[in-house]
Amino acid sequence: MVRSSLFIAGVAAVVMIFFGGAGALGFVGDTVLLQGMDKVTARVWSFEAPVDRAIRFGTLQIIVRKCERTPPEEPPESVAFLEIYEAKAGEDRLDLFHGWMFASSPSLNGLEHPVYDVWVLDCKLKSPPKLERTREP
C-alpha cells in the first residue's frame, strides 16, 4: 500500500515537472530591487535595475533579464534572472554570473566575487502588471 502511494506521488511529480499544472497567477515585474555590498569598505547600497537595461555597481555591470513575484495569497518570493559581468576600463568584459537569484535565499545561488556581493530584495511593478501563469513545483 505504501509503495503504491509513493509510486503514484512520484508519477504525479514527474507529470507536474514535464507538463506543468494550472499554476497560480504570478506577477512579472519590470524592475528589480537589488542590494550590493562593497566588501572592502563594508558599504551597502540598495538600487533598482530595470529589466533588460544594464546598470553599474562599482566595476560590475548587471543586466536583469526577468523578474517574477509570487501572488499575495502564496508565501512571498521574488526571483530574478541576472547576468553580471566585471567591466573594468580598458579590459574585456568578464562573465561572472548568469542565473536565477532568490530573495528568500540569497546564498542559494549567489555571485562569487572578491570585492562585491549582490543579492535580490524584491521584484517591482513600475508599470501596469502583466499576469502570467507560473509553474507550480
Question: Which helices and strands appear, and what pairs or packs with what?
Answer:
Blueprint: H1 2-19, E1 25-28, E2 31-38, E3 43-50, E4 54-57, E5 60-69, E6 78-86, E7 94-102, E8 116-124, E9 130-133
Antiparallel strand pairs: 1-5, 1-9, 2-3, 2-8, 4-5, 5-6, 6-7
Report on this model:
- The protein is mostly beta strands and 137 residues long.
- 13% of the residues lie in helices and 47% in strands.
- The protein has one helix and nine strands.
- Strand 2 and strand 3 form a beta hairpin.
- It is globular, with a radius of gyration of 18 Å.
- The two termini are 25 Å apart.
- The model is unreliable at 1-23 (pLDDT under 50).
Describe this protein with a few key phrases:
six-stranded antiparallel sheet; 9 strands
**Portion in helices:** 10-25%
Order of helices and strands: HEEEEEEEEE
Shape: globular
* Strand proportion: over 45%
Give the number of domains. 1
Output the structural class: mainly beta
Q: Radius of gyration in whole Å, from Cα?
A: 18 Å
The number of helices is 1
Straight-line N-to-C gap: 25 Å
Major sheet attributes: 6 strands, antiparallel
How many E strands? 9
Q: Indicate the low-confidence ranges by residue numbers.
A: 1-23
Average of per-residue pLDDT values: 80
